[in-house]
Amino acid sequence: MAAHQTSVxxxxxxxxxxxxxxxxxxxxxxxxxxxxxxxxxxxxxGPEAIPPDxxxxxxxxxxxxxxxxxxxxxxxxxHYGPVRGDRPQxxxxxxxxxxxxxxxxxxxxDWADGFVESFALRQRRWTKMxxxxxxxxxVPIMTLCDPENLLDELEIEEKERAVDNAxxxxxxxxxxxxxxxxxxxxxxxxxxxxxxxxxxxGRNDPCPCGSVKxxxxxxxxxx
Length: 223
Description:
Layout: E1 2-3, H1 14-22, H2 33-45, H3 52-59, H4 67-76, E2 83-84, E3 87-88, E4 99-102, E5 105-107, H5 109-117, H6 123-131, H7 139-145, H8 147-150, H9 156-181, H10 185-201
Antiparallel strand pairs: 1-4, 2-3, 4-5
Helix pairs in contact: 2-5, 2-9, 5-7, 7-9
């Protein structure tokens, strides 16, 4: 079961959606709740509004939708508020990612994978960001996508701490990415210049993902 909190009260609960996505009634390859939340969050904060006809097939594994199934995706949007210009909206101050939880262990890689999967819908623009100085904003998400490889040189306790720090940073990370994409091109250049300065002078500093490795030996390697 996915652990979650939400500030939005809906007639159809996230528990209902979770049960549906895990049931035999949903398409075999459809997303589950955590990666669906990450995917829709990526769409919400991404470079531009994307028509539902583009992102619904990714959720439903590109299967032809029946009339009943066409109504289902609407349930998932309650977590984001109203849809404006085909873009699910997230709260400007509250971001509460939905993660899987097993006992005391929070499992966030599904959410991070879902977020990154949204990149494919606007691949060129996301790739440009990843390769720019602004790509540092994606460090916590990329860390959670592949912690075993990115943090492979760390001891178990250090790796766990780095993952916990990345999870804790996600709400601010999401809002920072949203703010970046809504900047003017001129302001983006100014911000990139600031980030370039930080990256150049801080590559030997501890990685912002929370590991004890140097940034250049950790997430600074880049995708």
